[in-house]
Design a protein that fits this description.
Strand order of the largest sheet: 1-12-9-13-18-14-15
Structural class: alpha/beta
CATH superfamily of the largest domain: Zn-dependent exopeptidases
Distance between the termini: 27 Å
Number of helices: 8
Mean pLDDT: 86
Number of domains: 2
CATH architecture of the largest domain: 3-Layer(aba) Sandwich
Radius of gyration: 21 Å
Shape: globular
Length: 393
């Protein structure tokens, strides 16, 4: 699906009126680019009555919070509304905003900086509204944000033969997005997924970096940006896809770990269900598994602030998790991570966990109490981060 088509679908699914004033050109066609930064499930456009005798019109509401997709040719970025432009950000980049001044939207750039962009230079997607609590959700109305960890010079873990975590994370995230946007039947005993009708596609899925977007999705993102996208989207679920390094134990099964947002209710339940589904999907692989001393769903607390240790979870305001699928640092697991079978199994497990979380009150096993974390898990600095700029601008 092209970005032009995807944006139109999301507008109809979320709010036709809210998008109409800021996404339509003088010819009435959505503005967009060929490489999608967002994707939405197929939605039938509502019938709109027309008349030739109407003498008044209703202006669409001004959107003050949501997502902005940079349109073809890029969009000028300003340090203040109406000021001199600083640079032109690359087409297809997704930006979150939660305030505006006139035609200017206040956004967070991919390098965590606050900036401004004109609403007329982007496609605006209004923030979704969470209508029901998790466990009772209508999947067809759900909004999911998937975050492929790392990117560009922040390559994450690296395997013994050079496989980088950033590339595996991106591919698994793409597969997860595609699953979420398709109707399925699921065998909950075996985990098998096939095309069907019992589990509907979700309304919209946003990737923080997209393999079909700028630089094939290989650009750096700050942690604040990632969380801001989820918050601005009004996501029901936020999942960050990762792989681990430096194991400390030899478990009798997959050493997958899921870190949940201690500060957000129900994040532990989301983590427990994804972990349960990972064990179901991954246990069939014949591997000498590595892992940590603590298995299952975990939360780490910063003793100095008494909040979530991980910034991406600390800043999110919906059920959120970081999923560590396997240990890329270990030869057998790195070889496994290169296979399509592994990547499909990982994506399918997270998919099933999300579906169960949104549609059932179920709680998985292996949920650990929050642990005070005094070590340094390590993260790439954004001090030299570069926002993707439009070529030729």
């Amino acid at each position: 699906m092209s970005l032009r088509a995807a944006i139109a679908v999301v507008c109809f699914a979320v709010s036709v009126a809210a998008c109409a004033g800021e996404m339509v050109t003088s010819q009435g066609a959505p503005r967009g680019v060929d490489n999608p930064a967002i994707t939405a499930s197929p939605t039938t456009a509502p019938a709109i009555a027309t008349t030739t005798t109407t003498t008044t019109t209703t202006q669409p509401p001004t959107v003050s919070a949501g997502l902005a997709v940079v349109t073809e040719g890029g969009a000028p970025i300003f340090s203040e509304p109406g000021g001199t432009r600083d640079f032109v950000i690359h087409e297809g980049i997704l930006l979150g905003f939660d305030s505006r001044e006139g035609n200017f939207l206040e956004v967070v750039t991919t390098c965590n900086d606050t900036a401004w962009v004109r609403a007329t230079d982007v496609n605006v997607i209004p923030k979704a509204r969470r209508s029901v609590d998790s466990g009772q959700a209508d999947l067809a109305k759900a909004t999911i944000v998937v975050d492929p960890g790392h990117g560009s010079r922040d390559w994450g873990g690296v395997g013994p033969t050079g496989l980088t975590e950033k590339e595996v994370n991106l591919d698994v995230s793409r597969r997860l997005r595609d699953l979420l946007l398709t109707n399925h039947d699921v065998n909950w005993s075996t985990g098998a997924i096939q095309d069907g009708t019992t589990v509907p596609a979700v309304n919209a899925v946003f990737l923080t970096r997209d393999p079909d977007g700028a630089f094939d999705g290989d650009y750096e993102l700050g942690l604040a940006y990632r969380s801001h996208i989820a918050n601005s989207a009004g996501a029901d679920v936020f999942v960050s896809i990762h792989h681990n390094t430096v194991p400390t134990a030899d478990p009798d099964g997959p050493g997958s770990e899921i870190f949940y947002a201690w500060s957000v209710d129900d994040s532990d339940r989301l983590a427990s269900l994804i972990h349960q589904e990972l064990l179901l999907s991954l246990s069939g692989f014949d591997v000498d598994w590595k892992g940590g001393l603590i298995r299952g769903a975990r939360a780490r607390i910063d003793p100095e602030t008494d909040t979530d240790y991980y910034g991406i979870l600390r800043r999110a305001n919906m059920p959120s998790v970081i999923v560590e699928g396997a240990y890329i640092s270990e030869p057998e697991e790195e070889a496994l991570l290169r296979t399509v079978e592994w990547r499909d199994a990982y994506a399918e497990a997270v998919y099933r966990g999300i579906v169960r979380f949104l549609t059932t009150p179920e709680f998985g096993e292996d949920v650990n109490e929050p642990e005070v974390f005094t070590s340094n898990a390590g993260t790439a600095s954004t001090s030299s981060c570069v926002v993707p700029e439009q070529p030729g601008s």
